[in-house]
Request: fold
Amino acid sequence: MIEAMSAPEVPPADETTAGWWDATREHRLVVQGCDSCGAVQHPPRGVCTGCGETGALVWRDDTGAGVVDSFTVVHRAPQRDLAVPYVIARVRLDCGVLLLTRLEGADAQAWHIDDRVRVAWVDLPDGRALPVFTPAD
Reply:
């Protein structure tokens, strides 16, 4: 678990996102997969973006490994209680899904595109957790 980041407010789980949030309580990263066409997707949706199927979506465990696809270093926080600098990134999981997240565990200026990363977790007060990514080592 990572503790450097202050836990942000997050939306409540709903019918579409409940499975994802439930997995985060166990520090498991899941993505939606379609049993009809094999596509994987994130964020959670009620319809497969590959084939349009609505009844074939299932939750699939992911390894949490990937690469930094894009990132930016934030030097001016949108609210006073956020320590700067921090890094917002788009991580491409090895399964192909893109995830918007934060990068932790390295100096903000040390990150590069294509750096290998792995998932870590920031626990939220309600028992859920947010995935963040750290250097894969």
